[in-house]
Amino acid sequence: MPELASAPALRRPAERRTGRNGFAHLVLVIGSLVMLFPFAWQIITSLSTNAEVTSIPPKLWPSSLHFENYSEVFAQLPFVSQLTVSVTVTVIKVLGHLLLGALAGYAFARMRFPGRGLMFGLVLAIMMVPPQVFLISQYQIVQGLGWLNTVAGIVAPGIFTAFSAFLMRQFFLGLPDELEEAARLDGANPFQVFRKVMLPLARPGLSALAVVGVLVSWNDLLWPLVVATEPGTQPLSVGLATLQGRFVTDYPVLMAAALLACAPILIVFLVMQRRVIDGLAVSGLK
Amino acid sequence: MSLATHDRPPATTGTVAGRAGAPNPGSRRRRSDSGWWPLLFAGPFFLGIAVFYLFPIVQTAYFSFTDWGPFGGVTFVGGENWRSLLSDDEFLRALFNTVVYVLVVLLGVPIAVGLATLLNRPTLRGTMVYRTMFFLPYLAMPVAIALVWRLMFNGDFGVINAFLGLFGIDGPYWLSTPGFALVAVAIVGLWMAVGFNIIILSAGLRSIPPELYEAASLDGASRWSQFVRITVPLLTPSIFFVVVMNVIGGFQLFDLLFAILGNNPVIADTKSLVYLFYDESFVLNNRGYGAAIAFVILLIVAIVTAIQFRLQRRWVHYA
């Protein structure tokens, strides 16, 4: 109790009843275990032998740790090329979202031009339309460009997202006018105002956009599944989903591959948790 | 990704109206003739949107009235695709499956309400740690996480049936029985969505004035009755939003299904709408029929969104 008394009044008086949270902790710990178990099981399986994984009842812990399953991933699967595709696609798409979204969002928020209302209305409408409605036609276009089985083909439609312009417009609308006025009076052209004054202020919006972009691009399945049919040109998501033959039943290697495919995102999340959660909450992403 | 307007509905519309009374109309006017700058700023973006989104909507609408021959060649067939949808057992089955999936995933909403309420107790320690753990499934690549669930649901050596066996329950062959297979996929969907739901609901919980709880506990209300009489009613807008997001997201069921049941014969009976769309459009090359299915999905999302907007208006006073 004394250490609570010394704490400033930031916390509410109810703080003293901490002991009553036993039930809450019990429920939350059980819930957390349910959330974490599949990840733990993935790790355990990735270090077991296939015989151990498929024994009845399942072994909860391998008799020895088989780290070689991870090197098998690289030996048996086109993992490196798929990882390269995933990273390349994600980086290009996210940079595109930031650049295109910031520029267009700024125009929608701060410039007046004919057709602005209509264009923004279309952007809003597109955000509500499920992706399948675009997909067949997008495929035709990408096929026509000769971009099947290329990074360009995987990136092409998704680098343009209505959401990027929408989010940045909302963000720019929330910034005060005065700074721009000052810069403009100093003779800066609109691009200089944008680049030197507004863009630095928009950093939180940009980071939310980047978080969403990384997550969506990295995990995306349907579009790359359709346009990248050769294993060497597929990103990890497609590679994992379309594994055939003996890999499907070599569970330890499969789990090692799955874990390696998730790891980058999970690590980024653990490092910058708050930003990720805020970014996703802002976006209402689902 | 739709419906992002939830958090701040007033900001999304009426900028011009909102700024009509801005103190400095002169500078506003000067900005209106900013020459070619808007084209430079918004042009590249809008060109991409026009090519990859606006044009495809129109083209897909046209495709939905066409038939694709097996060796190329697209013929106009009028409303035939649309008519056959209604009598196509496979389509109706996919619609039914998707609705079942959505309903199971929605069972996660009350769970998330309970967890979020516990998580947001002002006196609770370790909130951030719990939140991190609940959120991890939402970030993991669905395909990758589906693989471990596929193993866990295995009828012979799966850890889930081993667990059920502890209680004397003889678990089913989850992934080879159509009904159970769909429920298994939905359980994974529920598990992935809980963290997201908690984040949205937590924002709603934080907007409930703490004085209400203080007054209630002074009046001797139990925690349960505070939950039922204060938390749940004041949280309805957030709960409703979460329900809408889960429904719209649920109708997009594809990744989990593809990765868990994609190479399993049971998929014939467990296709979702998006799966059927994929199958028809890109495996069987019936793109005309696929286009019609795509528009059905659009129609469903539109109805759900319309209901949401209508009901949300009724709840404005809560905000």
Q: Tell me the radius of gyration of chain A.
A: 25 Å
Residues in helices of chain B, as a percent range: over 70%
Rg of chain B (CA only): 24 Å
| pLDDT < 50 stretches of chain A | 1-18
CATH superfamily of the domain at 78-250 and 261-283 in chain A: MetI-like
- Quickly name the level 1 CATH class of the domain at 78-250 and 261-283 in chain A: Mainly Alpha
3D architecture notes:
The complex is a heterodimer of chains A (286) and B (319). Helices cover 70% and strands 0% of the residues of chain A. Chain A is an all-alpha fold. In chain A, 45% of the residues are buried. With 319 residues, chain B is mainly alpha-helical. Chain B has a single domain (85-318), classed as MetI-like (MetI-like fold), CATH 1.10.3720. Helices cover 72% and strands 2% of the residues of chain B. Chain B contains 17 helices and 2 strands. Chain B has helices at 9-12, 15-19, 25-32, 37-63, 80-87, 89-106, 108-119, 127-139, 142-152, 159-166, 178-206, 210-218, 223-250, 255-261, 267-270, 273-283, 287-314; strands spanning 66-68, 74-76. In chain B, a hairpin with a 5-residue loop joins strand 1 (66-68) and strand 2 (74-76). The model of chain B is unreliable at 1-32 (pLDDT under 50). Classes of the chains: A mainly alpha (286), B mainly alpha (319). At the A-B interface, helix 2, helix 5, helix 6, helix 7 and helix 9 of A face helix 3, helix 4, helix 7, helix 8 and helix 9 of B.
Secondary structure topology:
The complex is a heterodimer of chains A (about 290) and B (about 325).
Chain A: H1 2-6, H2 22-46, H3 50-53, H4 68-76, H5 79-110, H6 116-128, H7 132-144, H8 151-155, H9 162-173, H10 178-185, H11 190-201, H12 203-219, H13 222-227, H14 236-241, H15 251-271, H16 273-283
Chain B: H1 9-12, H2 15-19, H3 25-32, H4 37-63, E1 66-68, E2 74-76, H5 80-87, H6 89-106, H7 108-119, H8 127-139, H9 142-152, H10 159-166, H11 178-206, H12 210-218, H13 223-250, H14 255-261, H15 267-270, H16 273-283, H17 287-314
Antiparallel strand pairs in B: 1-2
Helix pairs in contact in B: 4-17, 6-11, 6-13, 7-11, 8-11, 9-14, 11-13, 11-14, 13-17, 16-17
